[in-house]
Amino acid sequence: MSTTDSGHTVKKFDEELASLRGVVLRMGGLVEEQLRRALKVLADGDAEGALDVIKGDLEIDLIELRSDQEIAQLLARRSPLGVDLRTVLMLSKSVTDIERIGDETKKVARICVRLPDNGRELRTLPYMHEMQVLGEMVSRQLAGALDALARLDLARADEIRRNDDAVDAACNSLLDHIAGHMQEAPHTIPAAVLLLFATRALERIGDHTKNLTQYAVYLVEGRDVRHRKAVRAARA
Amino acid sequence: MVRHFHIDNPTMKNDSSTAGVHIPSARAIESVGAGGFRSDLLRSTSKSSAIKAEVRGLDFHYGGFRALKDVSMQVQANEVTALIGPSGCGKSTFLRCFNRMHDLYPGSRYDGEIRLYPDDVNLLAPDIDPVETRIRIGMVFQKPNPFPKSIFENVAYGLRITGEKRRQVIHEKVEKALRDAALWDEVKDRLHQPATSLSGGQQQRLCIARTLATEPEIVLFDEPTSALDPIATASIEELIIELKERVTILIVTHNMQQAGRVSRYTAFMYLGELVEFGETSRIFTRPAKRETENYITGRFG
Protein backbone atom coordinates (compact mmCIF):
# COMPACT_ATOMS: atom_id res chain seq x y z
CA MET A 1 0.00 0.00 0.00
CA SER A 2 1.29 3.43 -0.78
CA THR A 3 0.11 6.91 -0.05
CA THR A 4 0.84 8.20 -3.51
CA ASP A 5 -1.88 10.05 -5.31
CA SER A 6 -3.08 7.33 -7.54
CA GLY A 7 -6.57 6.93 -8.84
CA HIS A 8 -9.21 5.07 -6.90
CA THR A 9 -8.66 1.41 -6.21
CA VAL A 10 -12.04 0.96 -7.88
CA LYS A 11 -11.24 2.19 -11.40
CA LYS A 12 -14.89 2.53 -12.31
CA PHE A 13 -15.20 5.29 -9.71
CA ASP A 14 -12.52 7.30 -11.53
CA GLU A 15 -14.36 6.77 -14.80
CA GLU A 16 -17.66 7.89 -13.35
CA LEU A 17 -16.17 11.04 -11.82
CA ALA A 18 -14.37 11.83 -15.07
CA SER A 19 -17.58 11.32 -17.01
CA LEU A 20 -19.50 13.65 -14.72
CA ARG A 21 -16.83 16.32 -14.94
CA GLY A 22 -16.87 15.98 -18.72
CA VAL A 23 -20.63 16.40 -18.87
CA VAL A 24 -20.59 19.49 -16.66
CA LEU A 25 -17.74 21.14 -18.54
CA ARG A 26 -19.39 20.40 -21.87
CA MET A 27 -22.54 22.01 -20.54
CA GLY A 28 -20.47 25.03 -19.52
CA GLY A 29 -18.92 25.22 -22.97
CA LEU A 30 -22.34 25.11 -24.63
CA VAL A 31 -23.72 27.86 -22.42
CA GLU A 32 -20.69 30.00 -23.11
CA GLU A 33 -21.30 29.59 -26.84
CA GLN A 34 -25.02 30.30 -26.40
CA LEU A 35 -24.25 33.56 -24.62
CA ARG A 36 -21.86 34.66 -27.34
CA ARG A 37 -24.51 33.95 -29.96
CA ALA A 38 -27.26 35.70 -27.99
CA LEU A 39 -25.16 38.84 -27.69
CA LYS A 40 -24.39 38.83 -31.39
CA VAL A 41 -28.04 38.27 -32.23
CA LEU A 42 -28.97 41.26 -30.08
CA ALA A 43 -26.31 43.44 -31.68
CA ASP A 44 -27.34 42.42 -35.19
CA GLY A 45 -31.10 42.35 -34.64
CA ASP A 46 -31.09 38.80 -35.98
CA ALA A 47 -34.49 37.34 -35.01
CA GLU A 48 -33.86 34.03 -36.79
CA GLY A 49 -30.58 33.58 -34.97
CA ALA A 50 -32.41 34.35 -31.75
CA LEU A 51 -34.77 31.43 -32.35
CA ASP A 52 -31.77 29.16 -32.77
CA VAL A 53 -30.40 30.30 -29.42
CA ILE A 54 -33.78 29.63 -27.79
CA LYS A 55 -33.84 26.15 -29.30
CA GLY A 56 -30.24 25.59 -28.21
CA ASP A 57 -31.26 25.89 -24.56
CA LEU A 58 -33.16 22.61 -24.82
CA GLU A 59 -29.90 20.72 -25.19
CA ILE A 60 -28.58 22.36 -22.04
CA ASP A 61 -31.70 21.30 -20.16
CA LEU A 62 -31.16 17.72 -21.30
CA ILE A 63 -27.57 17.79 -20.11
CA GLU A 64 -28.77 19.00 -16.73
CA LEU A 65 -31.06 15.99 -16.47
CA ARG A 66 -28.23 13.66 -17.41
CA SER A 67 -25.73 15.12 -14.99
CA ASP A 68 -28.24 15.07 -12.15
CA GLN A 69 -28.80 11.40 -12.87
CA GLU A 70 -25.07 10.71 -12.78
CA ILE A 71 -24.75 12.66 -9.53
CA ALA A 72 -27.54 10.64 -7.90
CA GLN A 73 -25.85 7.42 -9.01
CA LEU A 74 -22.47 8.51 -7.70
CA LEU A 75 -23.91 9.43 -4.31
CA ALA A 76 -25.99 6.28 -4.05
CA ARG A 77 -23.40 3.80 -5.24
CA ARG A 78 -20.04 5.25 -4.25
CA SER A 79 -20.77 7.19 -1.05
CA PRO A 80 -17.99 9.65 -1.90
CA LEU A 81 -15.98 11.23 0.92
CA GLY A 82 -13.35 13.93 1.23
CA VAL A 83 -12.29 15.50 -2.05
CA ASP A 84 -14.62 13.16 -3.97
CA LEU A 85 -17.60 14.34 -1.96
CA ARG A 86 -16.59 17.95 -2.49
CA THR A 87 -16.17 17.30 -6.22
CA VAL A 88 -19.63 15.78 -6.57
CA LEU A 89 -21.27 18.51 -4.49
CA MET A 90 -19.44 21.23 -6.41
CA LEU A 91 -20.35 19.77 -9.78
CA SER A 92 -23.95 19.38 -8.68
CA LYS A 93 -24.19 23.03 -7.71
CA SER A 94 -22.32 24.14 -10.81
CA VAL A 95 -24.85 22.35 -12.99
CA THR A 96 -27.65 24.38 -11.43
CA ASP A 97 -25.86 27.67 -11.98
CA ILE A 98 -24.86 26.79 -15.53
CA GLU A 99 -28.45 25.84 -16.35
CA ARG A 100 -29.64 29.20 -14.95
CA ILE A 101 -27.06 31.01 -17.05
CA GLY A 102 -28.58 29.17 -20.01
CA ASP A 103 -32.03 30.42 -19.01
CA GLU A 104 -30.86 34.03 -18.68
CA THR A 105 -29.16 33.73 -22.06
CA LYS A 106 -32.42 32.50 -23.53
CA LYS A 107 -34.11 35.59 -22.08
CA VAL A 108 -31.66 37.83 -23.91
CA ALA A 109 -32.42 36.00 -27.18
CA ARG A 110 -36.18 36.25 -26.56
CA ILE A 111 -35.90 39.97 -26.09
CA CYS A 112 -34.39 40.20 -29.55
CA VAL A 113 -37.44 38.44 -31.00
CA ARG A 114 -39.84 40.71 -29.15
CA LEU A 115 -38.12 44.00 -29.96
CA PRO A 116 -40.01 46.32 -32.32
CA ASP A 117 -38.71 45.57 -35.80
CA ASN A 118 -36.50 42.87 -34.20
CA GLY A 119 -34.25 45.57 -32.88
CA ARG A 120 -33.02 46.80 -36.22
CA GLU A 121 -33.48 50.35 -34.93
CA LEU A 122 -31.33 49.58 -31.89
CA ARG A 123 -28.16 50.88 -33.44
CA THR A 124 -29.53 54.39 -33.17
CA LEU A 125 -29.86 54.12 -29.41
CA PRO A 126 -26.95 55.89 -27.66
CA TYR A 127 -26.42 53.21 -24.98
CA MET A 128 -26.14 50.23 -27.31
CA HIS A 129 -22.38 50.39 -27.38
CA GLU A 130 -22.32 50.32 -23.59
CA MET A 131 -24.58 47.28 -23.66
CA GLN A 132 -22.22 45.51 -26.01
CA VAL A 133 -19.27 46.27 -23.78
CA LEU A 134 -21.19 44.85 -20.81
CA GLY A 135 -22.05 41.74 -22.80
CA GLU A 136 -18.40 41.16 -23.68
CA MET A 137 -17.41 41.69 -20.07
CA VAL A 138 -19.93 39.10 -18.82
CA SER A 139 -18.90 36.72 -21.58
CA ARG A 140 -15.23 36.98 -20.62
CA GLN A 141 -16.10 36.46 -16.96
CA LEU A 142 -18.02 33.29 -17.79
CA ALA A 143 -15.19 31.91 -19.93
CA GLY A 144 -12.70 32.69 -17.16
CA ALA A 145 -14.84 31.07 -14.46
CA LEU A 146 -15.28 27.91 -16.51
CA ASP A 147 -11.52 27.77 -17.12
CA ALA A 148 -10.85 28.25 -13.43
CA LEU A 149 -13.29 25.45 -12.67
CA ALA A 150 -11.76 23.13 -15.25
CA ARG A 151 -8.19 23.75 -14.08
CA LEU A 152 -9.09 24.24 -10.43
CA ASP A 153 -7.10 27.43 -10.69
CA LEU A 154 -7.94 29.39 -7.57
CA ALA A 155 -5.91 32.47 -8.53
CA ARG A 156 -7.99 32.78 -11.68
CA ALA A 157 -11.19 32.08 -9.75
CA ASP A 158 -10.31 34.82 -7.31
CA GLU A 159 -9.64 37.28 -10.11
CA ILE A 160 -13.02 36.54 -11.71
CA ARG A 161 -14.80 36.82 -8.39
CA ARG A 162 -13.26 40.21 -7.71
CA ASN A 163 -14.25 41.41 -11.19
CA ASP A 164 -17.91 40.84 -10.41
CA ASP A 165 -18.15 44.21 -8.67
CA ALA A 166 -17.08 45.87 -11.91
CA VAL A 167 -19.79 43.94 -13.76
CA ASP A 168 -22.41 45.08 -11.26
CA ALA A 169 -21.22 48.68 -11.56
CA ALA A 170 -21.40 48.52 -15.35
CA CYS A 171 -24.93 47.12 -15.13
CA ASN A 172 -26.09 49.89 -12.84
CA SER A 173 -24.56 52.55 -15.02
CA LEU A 174 -26.26 51.08 -18.09
CA LEU A 175 -29.61 50.90 -16.30
CA ASP A 176 -29.26 54.61 -15.44
CA HIS A 177 -28.45 55.48 -19.02
CA ILE A 178 -31.39 53.54 -20.40
CA ALA A 179 -33.79 55.13 -17.90
CA GLY A 180 -32.38 58.59 -18.63
CA HIS A 181 -32.76 58.19 -22.37
CA MET A 182 -36.33 56.95 -21.94
CA GLN A 183 -37.25 60.39 -20.63
CA GLU A 184 -35.48 62.16 -23.45
CA ALA A 185 -36.91 59.98 -26.21
CA PRO A 186 -40.23 58.49 -25.12
CA HIS A 187 -40.74 56.79 -28.48
CA THR A 188 -37.87 54.40 -27.60
CA ILE A 189 -39.60 53.23 -24.43
CA PRO A 190 -40.95 49.91 -25.81
CA ALA A 191 -37.45 48.86 -26.84
CA ALA A 192 -35.82 50.37 -23.76
CA VAL A 193 -37.99 48.41 -21.33
CA LEU A 194 -36.91 45.18 -22.98
CA LEU A 195 -33.29 46.27 -22.86
CA LEU A 196 -33.63 46.90 -19.14
CA PHE A 197 -34.58 43.25 -18.82
CA ALA A 198 -31.63 42.23 -20.97
CA THR A 199 -29.29 44.21 -18.73
CA ARG A 200 -30.75 42.50 -15.68
CA ALA A 201 -30.25 39.10 -17.33
CA LEU A 202 -26.57 39.90 -17.94
CA GLU A 203 -26.17 40.93 -14.33
CA ARG A 204 -27.69 37.64 -13.19
CA ILE A 205 -25.31 35.74 -15.46
CA GLY A 206 -22.50 37.60 -13.73
CA ASP A 207 -23.81 36.47 -10.34
CA HIS A 208 -24.06 32.82 -11.39
CA THR A 209 -20.57 33.10 -12.81
CA LYS A 210 -19.30 34.31 -9.47
CA ASN A 211 -20.95 31.31 -7.79
CA LEU A 212 -18.96 29.00 -10.07
CA THR A 213 -15.68 30.51 -8.85
CA GLN A 214 -16.76 29.99 -5.26
CA TYR A 215 -17.44 26.32 -5.88
CA ALA A 216 -13.88 25.94 -7.15
CA VAL A 217 -12.58 27.22 -3.81
CA TYR A 218 -14.82 24.77 -1.98
CA LEU A 219 -13.61 21.85 -4.05
CA VAL A 220 -9.93 22.59 -3.61
CA GLU A 221 -9.75 23.90 -0.07
CA GLY A 222 -13.01 22.77 1.51
CA ARG A 223 -13.75 26.37 2.45
CA ASP A 224 -17.19 27.82 1.84
CA VAL A 225 -16.60 31.41 0.75
CA ARG A 226 -20.18 32.28 -0.16
CA HIS A 227 -22.40 34.86 1.52
CA ARG A 228 -19.62 36.67 3.33
CA LYS A 229 -21.84 39.59 4.25
CA ALA A 230 -24.38 37.33 5.97
CA VAL A 231 -21.64 35.48 7.80
CA ARG A 232 -20.02 38.72 9.00
CA ALA A 233 -23.41 39.93 10.23
CA ALA A 234 -24.03 36.64 12.03
CA ARG A 235 -20.66 36.89 13.76
CA ALA A 236 -21.08 40.50 14.83
CA MET B 1 -15.67 25.16 -26.26
CA VAL B 2 -14.26 21.89 -25.00
CA ARG B 3 -12.76 21.92 -21.58
CA HIS B 4 -11.14 19.19 -19.60
CA PHE B 5 -10.21 19.13 -16.00
CA HIS B 6 -6.57 20.01 -15.77
CA ILE B 7 -5.84 17.11 -13.49
CA ASP B 8 -7.61 13.82 -13.56
CA ASN B 9 -7.89 13.45 -9.85
CA PRO B 10 -8.38 16.66 -7.99
CA THR B 11 -6.62 15.09 -5.09
CA MET B 12 -3.87 16.61 -3.07
CA LYS B 13 -0.58 17.06 -4.86
CA ASN B 14 2.83 17.48 -3.40
CA ASP B 15 3.59 20.54 -5.41
CA SER B 16 1.12 23.20 -4.48
CA SER B 17 2.71 25.68 -6.85
CA THR B 18 1.31 23.90 -9.89
CA ALA B 19 -1.87 25.14 -11.45
CA GLY B 20 -3.54 22.11 -9.93
CA VAL B 21 -4.86 21.58 -6.49
CA HIS B 22 -3.49 23.53 -3.63
CA ILE B 23 -2.77 21.37 -0.63
CA PRO B 24 -4.05 22.94 2.50
CA SER B 25 -1.58 22.27 5.25
CA ALA B 26 -2.87 20.94 8.51
CA ARG B 27 -2.10 24.30 10.05
CA ALA B 28 -3.97 26.19 7.34
CA ILE B 29 -7.02 24.05 7.93
CA GLU B 30 -6.80 24.39 11.67
CA SER B 31 -6.56 28.14 11.30
CA VAL B 32 -9.69 28.13 9.20
CA GLY B 33 -11.34 26.10 11.90
CA ALA B 34 -10.14 28.32 14.70
CA GLY B 35 -10.51 31.74 13.20
CA GLY B 36 -13.17 31.09 10.61
CA PHE B 37 -16.87 31.19 11.01
CA ARG B 38 -17.43 28.04 9.08
CA SER B 39 -16.64 25.52 11.71
CA ASP B 40 -18.54 27.62 14.22
CA LEU B 41 -21.64 27.58 12.08
CA LEU B 42 -21.33 23.89 11.40
CA ARG B 43 -20.49 22.90 14.92
CA SER B 44 -23.53 21.75 16.75
CA THR B 45 -24.03 22.97 20.25
CA SER B 46 -21.60 20.78 22.07
CA LYS B 47 -22.04 19.89 25.66
CA SER B 48 -19.14 20.76 27.87
CA SER B 49 -16.46 18.43 26.67
CA ALA B 50 -14.99 16.46 29.52
CA ILE B 51 -12.08 14.20 28.82
CA LYS B 52 -12.66 10.58 29.79
CA ALA B 53 -9.22 9.30 28.91
CA GLU B 54 -5.97 10.68 27.67
CA VAL B 55 -3.43 8.61 25.78
CA ARG B 56 0.11 9.91 26.12
CA GLY B 57 3.03 8.68 24.05
CA LEU B 58 1.68 5.15 23.83
CA ASP B 59 4.02 2.55 22.34
CA PHE B 60 3.09 -1.08 22.15
CA HIS B 61 5.31 -4.03 21.24
CA TYR B 62 4.34 -7.57 20.31
CA GLY B 63 7.71 -9.16 21.10
CA GLY B 64 10.10 -7.31 18.81
CA PHE B 65 7.37 -5.73 16.68
CA ARG B 66 6.45 -2.15 17.46
CA ALA B 67 2.72 -2.12 16.72
CA LEU B 68 1.91 1.33 18.10
CA LYS B 69 4.21 4.30 17.74
CA ASP B 70 3.96 7.23 20.10
CA VAL B 71 0.18 7.55 19.98
CA SER B 72 -1.32 10.50 21.86
CA MET B 73 -4.95 11.54 21.86
CA GLN B 74 -7.84 12.47 24.10
CA VAL B 75 -11.06 10.52 24.38
CA GLN B 76 -14.06 12.75 25.03
CA ALA B 77 -16.50 11.58 27.68
CA ASN B 78 -19.98 10.51 26.52
CA GLU B 79 -19.03 10.67 22.88
CA VAL B 80 -18.36 8.02 20.26
CA THR B 81 -14.83 8.01 18.88
CA ALA B 82 -14.22 5.91 15.77
CA LEU B 83 -10.86 4.35 14.96
CA ILE B 84 -10.36 3.81 11.25
CA GLY B 85 -7.48 2.65 9.10
CA PRO B 86 -6.41 -0.23 6.87
CA SER B 87 -5.94 -3.74 8.25
CA GLY B 88 -2.81 -4.00 10.32
CA CYS B 89 -2.64 -0.29 11.09
CA GLY B 90 -2.87 -0.90 14.83
CA LYS B 91 -6.40 0.26 15.54
CA SER B 92 -7.50 -2.98 17.25
CA THR B 93 -4.17 -3.16 19.07
CA PHE B 94 -4.79 0.38 20.28
CA LEU B 95 -8.34 -0.46 21.38
CA ARG B 96 -7.13 -3.49 23.33
CA CYS B 97 -4.64 -1.42 25.31
CA PHE B 98 -7.53 0.31 27.07
CA ASN B 99 -8.67 -2.84 28.85
CA ARG B 100 -5.28 -4.53 29.01
CA MET B 101 -6.31 -7.37 26.72
CA HIS B 102 -2.70 -7.77 25.65
CA ASP B 103 -1.76 -8.86 29.17
CA LEU B 104 -3.22 -12.25 28.27
CA TYR B 105 -0.37 -12.87 25.82
CA PRO B 106 3.27 -13.12 26.84
CA GLY B 107 5.87 -10.90 25.20
CA SER B 108 3.75 -7.79 24.90
CA ARG B 109 4.93 -4.47 26.28
CA TYR B 110 3.23 -1.15 26.89
CA ASP B 111 5.11 2.16 27.11
CA GLY B 112 3.45 5.49 27.75
CA GLU B 113 0.19 6.11 29.56
CA ILE B 114 -3.55 5.90 29.23
CA ARG B 115 -4.93 8.11 31.96
CA LEU B 116 -8.52 7.51 32.97
CA TYR B 117 -10.50 10.43 34.37
CA PRO B 118 -11.83 11.64 36.73
CA ASP B 119 -9.74 9.18 38.79
CA ASP B 120 -6.54 10.22 37.04
CA VAL B 121 -5.07 6.72 37.09
CA ASN B 122 -2.77 5.24 34.47
CA LEU B 123 -4.52 2.14 33.12
CA LEU B 124 -1.19 0.75 31.97
CA ALA B 125 0.50 0.99 35.36
CA PRO B 126 1.73 -2.41 36.61
CA ASP B 127 -0.16 -2.04 39.89
CA ILE B 128 -3.51 -1.73 38.13
CA ASP B 129 -5.50 -4.98 38.20
CA PRO B 130 -6.35 -5.91 34.60
CA VAL B 131 -9.45 -7.83 35.65
CA GLU B 132 -10.84 -4.82 37.46
CA THR B 133 -9.94 -2.70 34.44
CA ARG B 134 -11.99 -4.97 32.19
CA ILE B 135 -15.01 -4.49 34.44
CA ARG B 136 -14.66 -0.71 34.17
CA ILE B 137 -13.83 -0.85 30.50
CA GLY B 138 -16.02 -3.30 28.66
CA MET B 139 -15.50 -4.80 25.25
CA VAL B 140 -17.69 -6.07 22.44
CA PHE B 141 -16.05 -8.14 19.73
CA GLN B 142 -16.47 -8.64 16.03
CA LYS B 143 -18.30 -11.94 16.29
CA PRO B 144 -20.94 -12.33 18.97
CA ASN B 145 -19.34 -14.57 21.59
CA PRO B 146 -21.94 -15.45 24.21
CA PHE B 147 -20.95 -18.01 26.83
CA PRO B 148 -22.51 -21.46 26.40
CA LYS B 149 -24.97 -20.62 29.14
CA SER B 150 -28.48 -19.26 29.38
CA ILE B 151 -29.36 -15.74 28.28
CA PHE B 152 -29.76 -14.76 31.91
CA GLU B 153 -26.48 -16.27 33.06
CA ASN B 154 -24.56 -14.53 30.30
CA VAL B 155 -25.60 -11.16 31.63
CA ALA B 156 -25.32 -12.18 35.30
CA TYR B 157 -21.79 -13.51 34.81
CA GLY B 158 -19.92 -10.25 35.33
CA LEU B 159 -22.02 -9.42 38.37
CA ARG B 160 -21.23 -12.76 39.96
CA ILE B 161 -17.49 -12.39 39.49
CA THR B 162 -17.64 -8.99 41.14
CA GLY B 163 -19.02 -10.84 44.17
CA GLU B 164 -22.68 -9.89 43.90
CA LYS B 165 -24.73 -12.63 45.54
CA ARG B 166 -28.13 -11.00 46.21
CA ARG B 167 -30.60 -12.65 43.83
CA GLN B 168 -32.87 -9.63 43.73
CA VAL B 169 -30.03 -7.25 42.82
CA ILE B 170 -28.76 -9.62 40.14
CA HIS B 171 -32.27 -9.89 38.67
CA GLU B 172 -32.71 -6.15 38.59
CA LYS B 173 -29.34 -5.52 37.04
CA VAL B 174 -29.77 -8.21 34.41
CA GLU B 175 -33.13 -6.76 33.42
CA LYS B 176 -31.72 -3.25 33.28
CA ALA B 177 -28.75 -4.33 31.17
CA LEU B 178 -31.03 -6.21 28.77
CA ARG B 179 -33.32 -3.19 28.53
CA ASP B 180 -30.33 -0.91 27.93
CA ALA B 181 -29.19 -3.23 25.19
CA ALA B 182 -32.68 -3.07 23.62
CA LEU B 183 -33.07 -6.84 24.00
CA TRP B 184 -35.40 -7.22 26.99
CA ASP B 185 -38.69 -7.36 25.11
CA GLU B 186 -37.36 -10.05 22.81
CA VAL B 187 -35.97 -12.34 25.52
CA LYS B 188 -37.93 -11.67 28.70
CA ASP B 189 -40.02 -14.83 28.23
CA ARG B 190 -37.06 -17.10 27.54
CA LEU B 191 -34.32 -15.92 29.83
CA HIS B 192 -33.28 -19.46 30.67
CA GLN B 193 -32.89 -20.68 27.14
CA PRO B 194 -29.37 -21.05 25.77
CA ALA B 195 -27.86 -17.82 24.47
CA THR B 196 -26.94 -19.62 21.29
CA SER B 197 -30.65 -19.92 20.43
CA LEU B 198 -30.65 -16.18 19.62
CA SER B 199 -30.05 -14.69 16.18
CA GLY B 200 -26.68 -13.09 15.37
CA GLY B 201 -27.93 -9.56 15.98
CA GLN B 202 -29.58 -10.61 19.24
CA GLN B 203 -26.42 -12.40 20.36
CA GLN B 204 -24.43 -9.24 19.75
CA ARG B 205 -26.92 -7.19 21.78
CA LEU B 206 -26.66 -9.87 24.49
CA CYS B 207 -22.90 -9.36 24.52
CA ILE B 208 -23.50 -5.64 24.86
CA ALA B 209 -25.90 -6.32 27.76
CA ARG B 210 -23.28 -8.55 29.37
CA THR B 211 -20.78 -5.71 29.13
CA LEU B 212 -23.25 -3.12 30.44
CA ALA B 213 -24.26 -5.22 33.47
CA THR B 214 -21.12 -4.27 35.37
CA GLU B 215 -21.72 -0.59 34.62
CA PRO B 216 -18.52 0.15 32.73
CA GLU B 217 -17.26 3.69 32.10
CA ILE B 218 -15.95 2.99 28.63
CA VAL B 219 -17.14 0.39 26.14
CA LEU B 220 -14.79 -0.73 23.39
CA PHE B 221 -16.37 -2.03 20.19
CA ASP B 222 -14.15 -3.98 17.81
CA GLU B 223 -15.97 -4.08 14.46
CA PRO B 224 -19.20 -4.99 16.23
CA THR B 225 -21.37 -5.29 13.12
CA SER B 226 -19.09 -6.82 10.51
CA ALA B 227 -20.82 -10.19 10.93
CA LEU B 228 -24.36 -8.76 10.90
CA ASP B 229 -26.91 -7.94 8.23
CA PRO B 230 -27.90 -4.29 7.59
CA ILE B 231 -30.98 -4.43 9.82
CA ALA B 232 -29.13 -5.91 12.80
CA THR B 233 -26.32 -3.43 12.06
CA ALA B 234 -28.74 -0.52 12.23
CA SER B 235 -30.09 -1.67 15.59
CA ILE B 236 -26.56 -1.96 17.01
CA GLU B 237 -25.68 1.50 15.67
CA GLU B 238 -28.83 2.96 17.18
CA LEU B 239 -27.88 1.31 20.45
CA ILE B 240 -24.37 2.76 20.36
CA ILE B 241 -25.79 6.24 19.85
CA GLU B 242 -28.15 5.77 22.81
CA LEU B 243 -25.46 4.29 25.04
CA LYS B 244 -23.15 7.26 24.75
CA GLU B 245 -25.44 9.15 27.09
CA ARG B 246 -24.16 6.83 29.81
CA VAL B 247 -20.78 5.56 28.69
CA THR B 248 -17.86 6.67 26.58
CA ILE B 249 -17.46 4.65 23.41
CA LEU B 250 -14.52 3.72 21.23
CA ILE B 251 -15.31 1.80 18.07
CA VAL B 252 -13.04 0.19 15.52
CA THR B 253 -14.70 -0.08 12.15
CA HIS B 254 -13.76 -0.79 8.56
CA ASN B 255 -17.01 0.70 7.42
CA MET B 256 -16.45 4.37 6.78
CA GLN B 257 -20.16 5.06 6.55
CA GLN B 258 -20.60 3.47 9.94
CA ALA B 259 -17.94 5.71 11.43
CA GLY B 260 -19.75 8.63 9.81
CA ARG B 261 -23.11 7.56 11.19
CA VAL B 262 -22.21 6.88 14.80
CA SER B 263 -19.12 8.86 15.76
CA ARG B 264 -18.46 12.42 16.74
CA TYR B 265 -14.67 12.04 16.56
CA THR B 266 -12.56 9.98 14.23
CA ALA B 267 -8.96 8.85 14.53
CA PHE B 268 -7.21 7.66 11.40
CA MET B 269 -4.33 5.25 12.02
CA TYR B 270 -1.73 4.00 9.61
CA LEU B 271 1.32 1.80 10.21
CA GLY B 272 0.93 2.03 13.97
CA GLU B 273 0.74 5.81 14.03
CA LEU B 274 -2.14 8.12 14.71
CA VAL B 275 -2.12 10.13 11.49
CA GLU B 276 -5.07 12.41 12.09
CA PHE B 277 -7.65 12.96 14.79
CA GLY B 278 -10.58 15.35 14.69
CA GLU B 279 -14.31 15.80 14.43
CA THR B 280 -15.82 13.24 12.09
CA SER B 281 -17.67 15.97 10.21
CA ARG B 282 -14.36 17.52 9.20
CA ILE B 283 -12.33 14.34 8.69
CA PHE B 284 -14.88 13.06 6.17
CA THR B 285 -15.25 16.28 4.21
CA ARG B 286 -11.86 17.98 4.38
CA PRO B 287 -9.19 15.89 6.03
CA ALA B 288 -5.94 17.73 6.67
CA LYS B 289 -3.56 14.88 5.87
CA ARG B 290 -3.03 13.34 2.50
CA GLU B 291 -2.93 9.80 3.91
CA THR B 292 -6.36 10.33 5.46
CA GLU B 293 -7.73 11.72 2.21
CA ASN B 294 -6.36 8.76 0.25
CA TYR B 295 -7.82 6.28 2.70
CA ILE B 296 -11.32 7.70 3.04
CA THR B 297 -11.67 8.23 -0.70
CA GLY B 298 -10.48 4.73 -1.56
CA ARG B 299 -7.25 5.77 -3.22
CA PHE B 300 -4.98 3.50 -1.21
CA GLY B 301 -3.80 0.64 -3.27
What would you say this structure looks like, in words?
The complex is a heterodimer of chains A (236) and B (301). Chain A is 83% helix and 0% strand. Chain A is mainly α. Chain A has one domain (3-230): Phosphate transport system protein phou homolog 2, domain 2 (Methane Monooxygenase Hydroxylase, Chain G, domain 1). In chain A, helix 1 (11-44) runs parallel beside helix 3. The termini of chain A are far apart. Chain B has 301 residues and is α/β, with parallel strands linked by helices. Chain B has a domain at 1-130 and 256-301: Rossmann fold (3-Layer(aba) Sandwich). Chains A and B meet through helix 1, helix 3, helix 4, helix 6 and helix 7 of A and helix 2, helix 10 and helix 12 of B.
Distance between the termini of chain B: 36 Å
CATH superfamily descriptor of the domain at 1-130 and 256-301 in chain B: P-loop containing nucleotide triphosphate hydrolases
User: Roughly what is the average pLDDT of chain A, rounded to an integer?
Assistant: 92
- Uncertain stretches of chain B: 6-47
Name of the CATH first level of the domain at 1-130 and 256-301 in chain B: Alpha Beta
Strand tally of chain A = 0
Strand order of the largest sheet of chain B: 6-7-8-3-9-10
Total number of distinct structural domains of chain A: 1
DSSP strand tally of chain B: 10
Name of the CATH class of chain A: Mainly Alpha
